[in-house]
Amino acid sequence: MTLLTTWPETGPETVVRRTSDPAEIAAALAPVGVRYEQWPVREDVPADADSDTVFAAYRTEIDKLNAEEGFRTVDVVALHPPAGDDPEWAGKAKAARQKFLAEHTHDDDDEVRFFVAGAGIFYLHVGGEVHAVYCEKGDLLGVPRGTTHWFDMGTSPAFTAIRFFHEEDGWIGTFTGSPIADRFPDFDEIHAGYAA
């Protein structure tokens, strides 16, 4: 289930909003230009499905969004713990997570993701507030270009997502240098509290 938690940008001591209601989440994010919606979940698509399987399952939704938004590149990104013992997994997971943990913007593109499986949190720093959007399977989030944000997939990432780009170069972040992300609960903290 999705969760939106909003705090003042000064820190997480005060919770401004906490809701798991999809309509409330969409209504709270719309004024800052963030698109939130839910697509039907295809239960027959395994969490570790390959790109062709994911594209086939969500072709109708992908085509509709492309027609509305004019995306030039669509791909599938997945990161899941290995079934067996992989001594390199911890290093790979840490490196992947670190890439997105610092606050950044995208100057030339929106950041649009649909979660096919697993979960991740987008933290949106906008209008004096920080919105932590815990996204799970079935959630689509569209962060407009220029919006300061960061993303956390946790210390043991497990997700598959469809990414949409207007630019063919894909993901290009401009980092703000702000340490704000260090002041707020990370994925593991929020996930543990949410699952409890």
Mean pLDDT: 92
Query: Runs with pLDDT <50, length 5+?
Result: none
> Helix fraction?
10-25%
Say how many strands there are: 11
Percent in strands: 25-35%
Radius of gyration: 16 Å
Characterize the biggest β-sheet: 9 strands, antiparallel
Structural class: alpha+beta
Q: Between the first and last Cα atoms, what is the distance in angstroms? A: 13 Å
Order of helices and strands: EEHEHHEHEEEEEEEH
Categorize the overall geometry.
globular
Number of helices: 5
Keywords for this structure?
9-stranded antiparallel beta sheet, two-stranded antiparallel sheet, 5 helices, 11 strands
Explained architecture:
The chain is α+β, with helices and mostly antiparallel strands and 196 residues long. 24% of the residues lie in helices and 33% in strands. A hairpin with an 8-residue loop joins strand 1 (3-8) and strand 2.
